[in-house]
Structure formats: C-alpha cells, structure tokens
Automatic annotation (TrEMBL):
Occurrences of domain Zinc finger CGNR (ranges): 112-155
Gene3D superfamilies xref list: Jann2411-like domain
Annotated organism of origin: Kribbella ginsengisoli
InterPro entries in UniProt: ABATE, ABATE_dom_sf, Znf_CGNR
PANTHER family assigned: BLL6575 PROTEIN
Protein name: CGNR zinc finger domain-containing protein
Length: 159
C-alpha cells in the first residue's frame, strides 16, 4: 500500500516557530503587516488568522497544555480513498486542507517534536531526527549554551 499521507514537516516547523522571542521580546510573524508575505514565503495558503489557529492548537498540544483531541476539528473532513490502477491500490487523501496537512505532519513526528527546553527565553520547537532522540534545544549555539552557562552560574552561586 502506498502511504497517502504526505507529511509536511517543514511547514509544520516553520509554523510552530513563527512566534519567536527576539532579544527578549515576544514576536509573531503571523500578526501585523508582514503576515501575509510571511505565509507566501513559506508556501502556506490561507489567512494569517487561520494559520495562527492551527499553530496555536498544535503548540498547545506539543507543550502538553491541551489534549490532542482538540486537533480533531482540523482533520474532520479528511478521507482516505482507494484508487485502483495497474500498480494496485493507491490511497489518496481527500479534503486535506493546509490545517489538516500540518496536523497529519504533527502525527508523524510525535515523540520527536518538542519545545526547546530553554522555556524561560525561547518559544521555539524542534524536530529531533537523530537516533538517540535526545536533543533538548532548538539550537545548541544559542539556547543550549545559554542554558548551560546559566546552570553553571546557579551551581557557583549555590556552593
Ligand atoms: Zn531555544
């Protein structure tokens, strides 16, 4: 059987990481004058409001703040339809709009998609494709080092 689900991990991660903290200030690419252009640049169809809705819903689930069942509404219209051809049966998705596709992508990276552990300063997410699956920071060069430095300072202070 051909897997009809086409994971759109890049769009999922871009979407989840569209509200970063920049120099200590929370920002949101999906608000304000540049939002429509940001969506176009990332090949994401629809309105900024629609993109924010599915982004915030998935982010809430990944952060453990919302039950996954809350994502059902985005995939409620999706159907898998068998198409018989010379090569056998191919499964096609019907009704998979963008929000549904990113929810399906989320489903394929569960257990590997997580928030950056530097939660006090960072709102980014990461998808860990390594065998060990032990990555903790969106970026070692920023959050990883910052957190290690802070923990080192804390240790020095407490001794
Ligand atoms: Zn981070």
């Amino acid at each position: 059987m051909v897997n009809a689900v086409m994971p759109d991990e890049a769009a999922l991660l871009a979407l989840l990481n569209s509200a970063p903290i920049v120099d200590g200030v929370p920002t949101d690419e999906l608000r304000g004058a540049g939002a429509a252009e940001w969506l176009r640049a990332h090949d994401i169809p629809g309105t900024p409001a629609a993109a924010r809705e599915v982004r915030d819903a998935i982010a809430g689930v990944v952060r453990g703040q919302e039950p996954a069942a809350g994502l059902q509404r985005f995939v409620a219209e999706v159907r898998q339809v068998p198409v018989v051809g010379e090569a056998g049966v191919e499964w096609k998705l019907e009704g998979a709009r963008f929000a549904a596709r990113v929810v399906l992508a989320w489903a394929t990276v569960q257990g590997r998609l997580r928030p950056c552990e530097n939660v006090a300063e960072c709102t980014l997410f990461l998808i860990d494709r390594s065998k060990a699956n032990a990555r903790r920071w969106c970026s070692m060069s920023t959050c990883g080092n910052r957190l290690k430095a802070r923990r080192h300072q804390d240790r020095l202070r407490s001794t």
